[in-house]
Amino acid sequence: MEDKVQLEVTGLVKKFGDDTILDGIDLCVHKGEVVVVLGPSGCGKSTLLRCMNGLETANEGTILLDGEEISSDGKKITQLRQKIGMVFQSYDLFPHKNIIDNITLAPVKVQKRTKKEAEEQAEKLLARVGLSEKKKAFPRELSGGQKQRVAIVRALCMNPEVMLFDEVTAALDPEMVREVLDVMLELAEQGMTMVIVTHEMQFARAIADRIVFLDNGKIVEETTPDEFFTNPKTQRAKDFLHTFAYEKRRT
After folding, report:
1. pLDDT tens per residue, range 149-166
2. What does the alpha-carbon distance between residue 216 and residue 202 come to, in Å, rounded to a whole number?
3. I want to staple 12 with a disulfide (CB 3.0 to 4.6 A). Which of 61, 101, 127, 189 is the partner?
4. In contact, 210 and 179? CB cutoff 8 Å
């Protein structure tokens, strides 16, 4: 991890109608750092990622990528969004296109790369995630875990500088979760800058350089994984972690 700040969020406020979803978020993500965002449902985690990617426009505050502001300006946001890959809970693959065509569509259409070049990169990435033999398959022929790995490859094929992951294992069966998390762990080891929203606590502890805990649209706690999981400073964080701890009831 380098000292360079790659993604900087300052005074971020996001409202939907009268509801304030994000209330003055300040967050810096350094190059090569993995930041895991935790918090209860409805606390603003996904909205934060969508603002970082320019899918949502903030009411107040700024988001900078390599010192350049992410705004809703049409051409500029298209260029910046190519640098920030995002993988969602839903795979959003085109059902009528095979896997290699799903992956290469954006590099060819948006980045104006040749089909041959995009396919060569896609095949290398598919090999990395163990899906080389599925390149001509259609989404309906893949398991949920395989589809999610394809969604990660599709984002990586745009050569992003930062990757955002929004609850990418939430819809998967437990046996499929591991194969997706292994891909993300490998990306972390290779130095990819990542911001991850997850409810997988063991995974969060294993992959994160830093934990950011949100509640009611605010950062309540921000610390190392070991510190957060063994010695949370706030009662709200203690209550949150307690929901993941189960003990046998004595009768």
Report:
1. 999 999 999 999 999 999
2. 24
3. 61
4. no
